[in-house]
Structures are given as C-alpha cells and as structure tokens.
Amino acid sequence: MTLKEALAHAARAGLARIDAALLLLHVLGRTAAERAWLIAHDEEALAPDHEASFLALCLRRAEGEPLAYLVGSKEFFGLPLQVDARVLVPRPDTETLVEWALERLGRIPQPRVIDLGTGSGAIALAIQSARPDAQVEAVDRSAQALAVAAGNAQRLGLPVQFRQADWLQGAGRYHLIVSNPPYIAAADPHLPALRHEPSQALVAGADGLDDLRAIVAAAPAHLEPGGWLLLEHGWDQADAVRALLGAAGFRDTISRADLAGIARCSGGRLLELG
Q1: pLDDT tens string 174-209
Q2: Can you give the pTM of this predicted structure?
Q3: Rounded to whole angstroms, how far apart are CA atoms 129 and 44?
Q4: Which helix (H) or strand (E) holds 163?
Q5: Domains in the chain, please, with CATH?
C-alpha cells in the first residue's frame, strides 16, 4: 500500500482528509506540519507494520475516537499538550476563556489564580505561560487527570501547582477563579458522540448546571475584593449562569462569545470593599 492508497482507504472509511493525513504522519513518526511531504512522496510504499498501525487507527477514528487521543497530543493556546482518555480534549473555543482571564488579570502584580477542574491542565498552563509572574494553582477531583496535567507542566517547564480537590475545597483566596466545568445535561442527545471522553468531566445533573451552581456559590469566599470568576458553559446557558452570578452577589456580570459567535463564557466581579 502506497501513501496515496492509504489516504484513499481512509477516505472510503469516511475519515476527513486532514484526519487521515495526521494519522499517517503520526504512524510515520513525522510532525503535523509535514503534510506537504505526504503529497511529495505519495507513491512511496508503507512498511507492513506502518500499514497495520494506520489501518487500526483509521478504524478507531471511524468509530468516533477523538483524533487527539489517537495521536496523543493537542495544541491549545500555542502549547503542545499530551492528552489521552483520562482527560477531555481541549477545545479551541476554550481559548476564549483564557484570553478573557488574561484581560482581567491586567497589570495585577503576581496575581493568584486557580483553575477548577483542570483536566489536561490546558487553561492553567496557558495562563502561566502568558503570565510567568502569576501564582497559578489547578485542581481536579480526578487523580488520573492530575497525572496528565502534571506531566504537561513538567514537559513545558511551567510551575503550576496541582492539587486533588473537589472544586474550591481547601482553597485560599485569589484574584481570579476560572473554570471549564462539566455542563452537559444528563439526557443531552449529543452525549453518545462524546462516549470516548470521560463522562465525569462532561455531565452535570439533569440541567447541566449542578457544578456551575456549586462553583458560583463557593467562589465569593475565595476571591479577593474586586476579583473575577470566569466560567465556560453550554451554548444555551449564558442567561442561567449570569443569573446564578447575580444571585451570589457578583456584579458586572457579562458573557463572552466563542469563535462561532455563541455566548460560551460568563463571569462576574466580586464587589470591592468600601
């Protein structure tokens, strides 16, 4: 089987061309930036072991397994993160939350930040990378997820502090609390498409708001006056999350749209003293 034939096989199996190319490059030990190499060498034959590996990966991708799990990595905010089935695949839309967080930190010297439900560490590591002076803490209730996050921090040389906890349990006080918690309703029809990712990082009760309620209720006791709580949520939850924030005493409650123009994040500011 030549490289060209391998890509044709993947297309017949229903894979997007970009996915097939990235899987083939992965099998060949080449980087995602070498797609042009595949075109220039499309008549070369695959070694038998490479062919077997590629066909197996194509089958898994056709069955819905995320590409990031198959190649073992995903770029987020310019950082190469290793990911696997212990954590959610970081989504580009979550970069909206990181950008907003960095705006809110502004010129605060050595700001204290906590990322709740860190998963792969994507949000915490992105903030730490952009703000080396920040004291960034990240928590997750999953020890397996924390192992992935800590490994990413070590590879990237970023000094995020990781801790196993349930949201703000055992937390201190911060200038910024940020989180991309589970927010999918238990009966959401889209869940089967996400079956390969950890359900505990996706589902939050009957309406998808259970974890968001818990975070909003606990956050005021852990924010410095004037500090911000920023949350990612579902496409139709912005009004509900802003209402939760307002009821908990937050002011300046607003939402931010993702790359598709959907209100994807909401946040509020704790009133300053005086």
Answers
A1: 999 999 999 998 888 888 888 889 888 888 888 999
A2: 0.92
A3: 41
A4: strand 161-164
A5: 3-63 (no CATH), 73-270 (3.40.50.150)
